[in-house]
Design brief:
- The protein is an alpha/beta fold and 243 residues long.
- It contains six helices and twelve strands.
- It folds into two domains: 90 residues, 2-Layer Sandwich (Heat Shock Protein 90); 138 residues, Rossmann fold (3-Layer(aba) Sandwich).
- The strands form three sheets. Strands 1, 2, 3, 4 and 5 form a five-stranded antiparallel sheet that branches. The protein has a five-stranded parallel sheet with strand order 8-7-9-10-11, sandwiched between helices.
- A hairpin with a 7-residue loop joins strand 2 and strand 3.
- The radius of gyration is 21 Å and the shape is elongated.
Amino acid sequence: MRSDPGHIVQVFLNGLSPDDYCLISDSDSGGGIPAAVLPYIFEPFYTTKAEGSKGTGLGLSTAYGIVHQSGGAIHAGSEPGLGTTMTVYLPANSGQTEALMPATVLSMASGTETILVAEDDETVLRLVSTSLSSSGFRVLQANNGEDAVDLLHAQGPAGVDVLITDVVMPGISGPILAARAAELLPRLKVLFMSGYTEDVIRNYGISRENVAFIQKPFAPSELVRKLRQLIDPERKPMTRKAR
């Protein structure tokens, strides 16, 4: 595999305005992708793996969502027997970098509440759970919506304070899980997360303006602050003066 992250090019791709973009290209020498499959590789849950194999077909669709959410584009070129090339275009930095530290900085949030995390990607589930546990929260993990419903039943009415769920999951999606959770625990707070673009999550009945939502990828501190704001909406965050 070879990677070429250093080139800045002027591109005119569908959906992108003419501008300077950073081009990242990776190629392999594998068997390639059949022409009949290539148009569908970025679709959620599309996979050519045999039934029962590990994987849900969300890897490329998540990458697609993250790249487009950043104002870029991703393109796949392949020919059977000659390998595959993935090309990512991301907006080039103008050279002026905004300050990373605002005038006031939110103090590190924490908590002791019980949080149920429903996420089908094992890596994301582990990272989210570790971030919350490190901040003092009690964390319950579910790899899918069905397991999350079972955990809600097992914990009882006072057993879970917040449900954090991915929007797009195989089987029971995040919005359906939230609806079932509301039947069991009417006061349960829900935080949705997704790496997909706005148009995709709207197909699942989710609007970021109307629900508590966090966009993947996110920093652990951002997740904990978002969660703290959801639990205590009236609580004013502590600040300290920047040096």
